[in-house]
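re the bet — no i am not wrong, look at it urself. input seq straight from the record:
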Amino acid sequence: MKLHNISLNNLRRRKAKMLFLVLGLTIAVTTVVTLVTVSEVMNADIANKLDEFGANILIVPKSEDLSLNYGGFAISGVSLDVQKLSEKDVEQIRTIKNSENIKIIAPKLLNVAKIVQREVMTVGVDFEQELQLKKWWKLSGKRPSGERDAVMGEEARKALQLDLNDSFEIKGERFTVTGILEPTGSQDDGVVFIALKEAQRLFGKPQEVNLIEAAALCYDCPIEEIVRQTSEKLPGAKVMAIRQTIESKMEAMHRFEHFSYGISAVMLLVAALIVMTNMTASVNERTREIGVFRAIGFRQRHIMVIILTEAFLTSLIAGFAGYGLGVGVSNVVVPMLTMDGKGQFVASYTLFGFSVALAVAVGVLSSIYPAYKASRLDPVVALKAL
C-alpha cells in the first residue's frame, strides 16, 4: 500500500479530528485573508479621502524676492510683481508620467487690493478645484458660480464690514459677497477669494499664477518621483513635498496595517498550537498502529511522510476554505468600514496562492514534531501494547 493511501485512510477513519484541524486552520486563514484585504481596501480608501483634505505638494517660483506665508505653509520665493508661473504650467503637471496619482491641482494668483479703503490680500482661485482641495471649508451663503462672485474669510468680512450679498469694488469693478468662510484658524480667514480669470484680468496678469497647490494620492505613491517629474516639466519652479502631511497620513495607515498583522500572527500561532496538539494526540492514540508499521519494515522517514501527508491534506483543504470565507467576509465588512459605504474586494490569484501556502506551511511545520516523535517510537515497546 502506498504511503499517501495510508494517510487518506487514516483521515477517513478519524473524520472528527480531521474536521477539527481543518476548522482551526480555516478560521486562522479566514482571519488573515479578511484583515489583509480589509486593510488594503481601507488604506486605499482612507488615502483617497485624506488626500482631498489638503495639499501635499507645493509649486512656487524659483525666487528669493519675498517670503510669504499662506495657508499655514511657509513659502519662499513668491514675487508678486514678476511673472513666474502660468496656467500652462498647470497643464504641464497633468502630463507627467505619474499624473494619475495627482487628484487635485489648485492654481492661485495672489495680489494686494484696496477694498473699502483697506489693503486686503486678494487671491484668485479656481473655485471648483479650491473647494475640492479644502473640504473643511464651511461657507455661509452659496458656492460661487459667477465671474463676479466672491468669498470672504470671517476676519476680512469683519474688517471690511460687509455681509452676504453686499457689493464691493476692486479696481473699479463690482463684486458680490456670495459666501462667507467660517473661521478656519488659518490665513484664509483674512483673505478675499475671487475667480482666477477675473483676478488675472483685473491685475493685468493674463494666464499668470503665483502658487500651485496639488493633492497627490499617497497610498504607496511615489511622492518623490512625482516631485522629480514635475520639476523636470517646470524648470523655472520650485516643487516641494509637504513631508509632514504625507508622513502623518502614511503613519496612520501603517498603524492599522501593523495592527492587522499582529492579529493575524496571533491567529496563526493559535492555529499552529491546535494542529500540534491534535497531531500529538493522534500519534499517542496510534502507538500500536505505528508499532505494526515499524515491525513490518516501515522506516522512520516512512512514518514521518504518513503523518506529514495527513497534515498537508488537511492544511490544503483549510487553505481553500479559508480563502473563500475570507473573500466573502471581506465583501461584507469592507462596505461597512469605507467612508462612502462602498467598496468591494476583487479576488486575487496572488492572495489565493498566499492563503493556501500559508495554511500548508502552518499545518506541516506544526506537525513536524509529532511526526518526528512518531518516527522515533520503539517498535518493541509499541507492540507490547497489543
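see?? Residues 3 and 306 are 6 Å apart (CA to CA). told u. also Residues 71-83 have pLDDT under 50 and may be disordered. so pay up
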